[in-house]
Amino acid sequence: MPHVLAVLEQRGGAVRRVSQEALAAARSLADDLECDVHGLLIGPPNTIPDGLGEYGADKVLTSLDAELELYQASRYGQIAAEQATGGEYTAVVIAASSLGKDLGPRIAARLGCTLASDVTSISGSDGIVVSRPAFSSKAIYRIKITATPCVVSIRPNAFSPLLTSRPGTVEEVSPGDAARPSDARTIAIKTPERATLDVAEASIVVSGGRGLKEPEHFKLVEELAQALGGAVGASRAVVDAGWRPHSEQVGQTGKTVSPNLYIALGISGAIQHLAGMRTAKVIVAVNKDRDAPIFKVADYGIVGDLFEVVPRLTDEIKKAREG
Amino acid sequence: MCDVATDQWCKYLPKTRGSPAILSQAQDNYEVTVKIAVCIKRVPDTETRIKIGADGKSIDESGVKFILNPFDEYAVEEALRLQEQAGGEVVVVCLGTEASQETIRTALAMGADSGVLLKVPSLPLDHLVVARALAAELEQGSFDIILFGKLAIDDYGQAVGTMVAELLGLPSVSAITRLEVTDNRATAQREVEGALEVVEFSLPAVVTAEKGLNDPRYPALRGIMLAKKKPLQIKDVDLEQGGIEVLELALPSERRAGRIVGEGPDAVPALVDALRNEAKVI
Questions:
Q1: B152 contact residues in A (CB cutoff 8 A)
Q2: pTM score, two decimals?
Q3: Which of A17, A198, A235, B254 has its CA at a distance of 20 to 30 angstroms from the CA of residue B220?
Q4: For chains A and B, what is the number of CB pairs under 8 angstroms?
Q5: All domains of chain A in start order, with CATH
Q6: Shortest Cα distance from B254 to chain A (angstroms)?
Q7: Considering just the CA atoms, what is the radius of gyration of chain B in Å?
Q8: ipTM value of the model?
């Protein structure tokens, strides 16, 4: 009976939340297919493989080596593809994170199999069927996988980590061959002094647009995001104007986000922006223009001057959180 | 951003990936120039309102404006900057329908030298099928560097460039925001969640461009005129069967109409209450 392989991501030896979500997707597929989930954890020797049974892994394969601390595309690809070759697995599931979006295609190309990327739902009850947003979530494909094995990458925040009790037995596997001189080599990962939450993975996103008038006024957005423990996002207009880094851009040429709460401040709601955030569970908009398109998708809106509304909102949130 | 430290990097690089004819030519007279490929795609404009086609499996293209995929613009721009400093030629490769000629002309108007259209009746959604067709073409070209946009804004796969690199056995870095090339070595930066990865690799190689890599130029009128006369080769391509079947393309469910909680800062307590007790998200 072929199983489902979930390729898991670590940073600094700790398994990332997106991989817990990928395990939940893998578990749901495996339950439909009546098979097991094996997690594959590639990383440095201090990687902690314990406790992954709670997230849905029947078995955890660890491929650990000091040279695997940073994401080394070629070696990671080789290790994962080698594990998935040979018919033991019907599907390889991976988070559609920065790493997964690079590693997923490598595994699929090495296996010569199809890849369904950025999937938001998965079912195995009638063959493997997935949903994946396209046109930046303006439309959704329902796709049947007609040849296995296949690789499926899971959009962050589309699945919630499970709390279950599978064995999660740990088993070491080979860390593969040493890097070849011709391989691309990740030599460093630079983390900013003040750690920032990524807008695509955060469960709360506070975004600002042109309504803020000046780049310095983004402080209002940052303060509200901080009060909520969320990430800062930005509209295309302010990114193109150079106010904010493009890594914060939400929309069709930026990031597509599905947080629990999305707060749009001074964003009118261009089609390409709405495309990037319409799958948020709850949307709040603050805009002085009552007719702004953003209010058509917002669950809750305040019509008003954001320079008056936002400081008050930040205060109230702080009070609510303390209380 | 691109920074080429020496002229004509990789001019004398052994051309291991080219056809035997190119290989021997290269060794015979050393007149190898830098060859840069950019793979592009024709996609619906970002402002498009998507309507579903009659088959229920694709978009209704009537009235849709098509553009050069925005991420591919960064790739074309980076290729042109590399060429400005190292010389050589920039070839644009596009897998697409007949109409993609227009998209190739846009890239030629930006400054690329020639184009190849791998013509297909319709574009498959299976990334590996696309990657194999592109790889088969690129393998013939003996390219020093192959650039892609990090993703196409229609199918949002973010897979083809990296798959092509794997199929060709070339090192690759995806979603780069910085590229520096010195001789036949290169360093790229890619943004990952809350951090930057720095990756070193040797040419030939494949990179895919993220927004922020550069500011793409607009085609000037002169460029547009020149582009009309640049060579554009059309090749019919047979695609293999993929491993997926599209069951349906549907619009996402409309969001429930929300409500305006109130006006001005006085509405804030009601909003916070709603988020806390109704939506339960804070």
A1: none
A2: 0.91
A3: A235
A4: 281
A5: 3-172 (3.40.50.620), 204-322 (3.40.50.1220)
A6: 8
A7: 22
A8: 0.92
